[in-house]
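=== Structure Prediction Worksheet ===
Name of assembly: unnamed complex
Input type: mixed (protein and possibly other molecules)
Chain count: two
Listed entries:
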Amino acid sequence: MSGTDPLLDVTGLTKHFPVRGGFPVRRAVGAVQAVDGLDLRVAEGESLGLVGESGCGKSTTGRLITRLLEPTAGKITYAGQDITHASRRELAPVRSEIQMIFQDPYASLNPRHTVGKIVSGPMEVNGIDPKGGRETRVRELLEIVGLNPEHYNRFPHEFSGGQRQRIGVARALALQPRLIVADEPVSALDVSIQAQVVNLLQTLQRDLGIAFVFIAHDLAIVRHFSQRVAVMYLGRIVETADRDDLYENPRHPYTRALLSAVPEATASDTPSRTRVRLTGDVPSPLNPPSGCRFRTRCWKATERCASEVPALVRVGGNGAGHLTACHYPETGDGAPKSGQEESALSGYFAP
Amino acid sequence: MNTPFLSVRDLRVAFSTEDGVVRAVDGLSFDLAQGSTLGIVGESGSGKSVTSMAILGLHDREHTDVDGEILLDGKDLLTATERELERLRGNTMSMIFQDALASLSPFHTVGRQIGETYRKHTGASRHEARARSVEMLRRVGIPQPDLRVDDYPHQFSGGMRQRAMIAMALVCDPQLLIADEPTTALDVTVQAQIMDLLKDLQQEFGTAIVFITHDLGVIANIADDVLVMYGGRCVERGTRNQVLRTPQHPYTWGLLGSMPSLDGPVDVPLSPIPGLPPSLLNPPSGCRFHPRCAFAEKVHGGLCATDSPPLEINGGGRGTACHLTAEQRRDFFVDYATPQPN
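=== Predicted Assembly ===
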């Protein structure tokens, strides 16, 4: 990864949604800090998993990357080009390379359009006429995603949830994208159908070399699909690492708690992970806690966590790509080191 | 073995719709002892929610045919009058629904909704009911229950609403609790809290729980016994360890193979079940799973397409409805469970 420029480079990405109130003039009385200073990199052909619980800002991040939302601050660079505030005209060529797959296969397809019209939509909008005509291309795409090309003239209601999601995938592939942002692409599907769609996406990533930002709340599916994983909490990334590194050696207390909360179908009476039970709920992004945002639910929090925002840095003993935003990272054996030692280390490795 | 607290025998539920008769549940039997948990697993349309509605008598009586026997502590619920059922619901048996926001009234405070059930069944005064509501909210882990009791549901977060629902279901210390996907809409950290809460409450009061979910991970965490449903029928049942460690039915294998894990080998493609769940309007002949089953052709004489396999239950309550022989199953499962490199 080092040496070459990443396909997508996001630094300090921030999105605050103003909250208006009052009468007669509705002034901004506050802001939902949905995403707050996010750094991300996605290499060509790589799959980055973005996990977190509801309200952590992962979907907002997806919409910012695809520029469906205007960032409040920060910078988005795609293939060397700054697209943070690019105009519609400047974005047009980029938009054909970045596509999106949505969560709800029922809401994301126009019920009045045939499958053919839906899948050829992106070509129509961008005025692209592939060799052999659009219809031939659509039939090819339907075949790639495992649908019968004969269903070209059918309407979405004639398909099941899993098949609809395949239509959404075919649409995303229509313009031969280099990056696909998939926002919870399988969470609305039944277990047996989920696996079908995950396998399809994995084949596409491998065979067509498409880079993915895979947004999901299901840690097991993200582990299955992504080479690198970023864990979000309340608008910030708390930990990012290569997949195996993150799942085997989580350093942020939140990551550890999240992993230990996933029920596993192993029927073993001794869970493989020491249970960490979080209490309470995620605080409101309207008024997030000062310092480390996880501190209100963290069993290790000290006064320092309230006053000082932990930087996303490399922690001692980790691989180069393993970054953690915590003053008192986990050591892996569950026993926290003394705060002094850790802070010295994180100071040492800070960029 | 002592007599089960809840006993369902050959339950059949059919709806008449414009398109024809939907046989949502087709011959389901199970027993549940006091203080234990039965997990019912299945995908959408497998009939698991319909079963729970039938137990509570919440189905639409005009358009629904219910046959069989549902014995709660020896009393048949299917022949009970609406008045008798009303006395039982919320008191002896109660239910937690999946969508807490849709199941709570937005116009009444949480405390009043919890207290309403209590007043109806115990004849307690407003004042007593309020005190009981506060106590219940405290028991399910709501902070500052004496203040939150006057909140409306929209002032609660998703996890708190689910807790309020549990408080409402448990306000009369029911002996049977039916939980229909109670954690599906929740985040994993909150889901873990709710499951711990249910387990604690069960230990304290000896409640029998029917836990309905599509998530085998949740089942592994909470159930004593497991029943796997497909197309309105039970395809496999047994203790948790039997079903999850040595599953016998190809559908259960498929479910397990479809689930990515946190520890298993990576870079191995999932082995999904091909095809789609059956339509219950026009279910497949014979074994309802046979059109999706990779092993149907191994059975002699094409039996799977013509004959519905009976659920053979041995003494320990272990059972599978499949035409494969025990030996075949053992061989195929080993093949199936060994990950295939790509």
